[in-house]
Amino acid sequence: MPRVYGKVVKKIERPSLKAGDWITVEAQRCLVVQARETGGLQVLLNSTNPETRGVAWSVSEWVFIGDRRPNVLADPRLAPFVEILRKG
After folding, report:
1. Phi, psi (rounded to 5 degrees) for 57
2. What distance lies between CA 81 and its chain's CA centroid?
3. For 69, which of 25, 47, 58, 78 is 20 to 30 Å away at the CA?
4. Taking the model in full, what pTM does it have?
5. Going residue by residue through the chain (88 aa), what tens digit of pLDDT does each one get?
6. How many degrees, rounded to 5, is the angle at CA 27 between CA 57 and CA 43?
7. C-alpha distance from residue 17 to each of 8, 41, 65, 70, 76 (Å)
């Protein structure tokens, strides 16, 4: 069994997700904008000031990886997702 912070935890199979699905990452509600072949995801979060983050599956939960990308409004590819995020 894997250990997280010294505690034995049950490994949970990584959920299969697609663009448009909602997930919770580190207590934040996020909208999936891209599912990568590697298993990682790009998500959109923060409806008042949208930003994207990478996330990865770690034993039993999604965790943020990499830097924040705050200039999502300049990316037309993300416009439909920003609209969904703001509607909640």
Report:
1. -85, 130
2. 13
3. 58
4. 0.84
5. 555 566 666 778 888 899 999 999 999 999 999 998 888 899 999 999 999 999 999 888 999 998 888 889 989 999 999 999 999 8
6. 55
7. 26, 9, 17, 23, 22
